Amino acid sequence: MNTPDPTDTLKGEHTDLIIVGAGIIGLAHAFEAHRKGYTVRIIERDARPNGASIRNFGHCCITAQDGAHLDTAYRSREGWLAAAQSIGFWAPEAGAVVVARSQTELAVLEQLRDKRGTDSVQLLTAEQTAGQLASAGTPDPDIRGGAFLPADLRVDPRTAAPDIAGWLQNQDGVNIHWGTAVKDIQAGGSVTTSRGDFHADKVLVCVGHDLDYLLPDVAARYQVQRCALQMAMAPAPQGYNLNSAVLTGTSMTRYDGFTTMPAADALRQEIYSHSPELIDIGANVMFTRRPDGTVLLGDSHVYGQTIGPFQDEWMTSRLVREIEKLLGAPLTVTQRWQGIYASSPLTSLLVEDIDSTTTAITVTSGIGMTLSFGIAAETMDRL
User: pTM higher than 0.85, yes or no?
Assistant: First the structure.
């Protein structure tokens, strides 16, 4: 479906919008722009979506955002559901289950409930929490309780972005040029590529962690680097059919909705006291089930300007053991992979006007899938 453009040189027709990058941020912008009636041209150097957009949990983590990002996340939820309805991809409103295995973890969830209300954060007893996992085996006896976050969504990360791209390229007024590299972007909406020059009223640069390749000055100003994560996949234990994402105490050290709670510092210290290696690798021990019955497992976080290709087996093994303990069932890993996304110590969302027609948009944290359609809707508001 997503193949390189067969022509050597493309005509430089004018469009309302040029989007550089066919990851989920670029695709979400294209979908929202198409809904607004804009003509759209997407330029992507790969032959199909192949980056962070297909290497994640497929978890739209709505409730665990905070501040302005919470509003963006809820708006993104609307966009995801609209896209799923138009295109037909899998996007159950399955929510997320957060498992607490200590009183400190439970305190963070109680505090989030007190802040957000019982409609957004539904506390679970230990028995109810274990019951969500019991189809897999005998869940961890240390479970003290948990919470259900009903606003969270699930998609299949292996197919969602390709499905969106395939649908878009069959719409009137939308063109996707695969296998086409951007060489230069000039003021006034002129984009030079390996297949010709294009022009638009507005250019959006949505290239994720490769921002430094195309706009090095912007990347340097925001101290953008790369975050590498290790993930794995295994067949679901027999009988396990939960579509909800499952998060743990380590997840509460990663998302702002949790980390802003009064008990968050004590929780981090508690985890470090018994499992320092999980804090050291920035672990987010969580898992999600895909519609084909496999389970995505992870993940760790390592930062650097350039990421080497070598993965430490102990990291993945440690994450898998922790999930096996939680489920009370063995897992047989069938795939392992490395994901890479952009990270900045200055902001979790980089939106920078390069000139009057060009804007760079990069999610500089691990919440690109969550915020994608909300960011796109906000961009359309400004056009």
Answer: yes
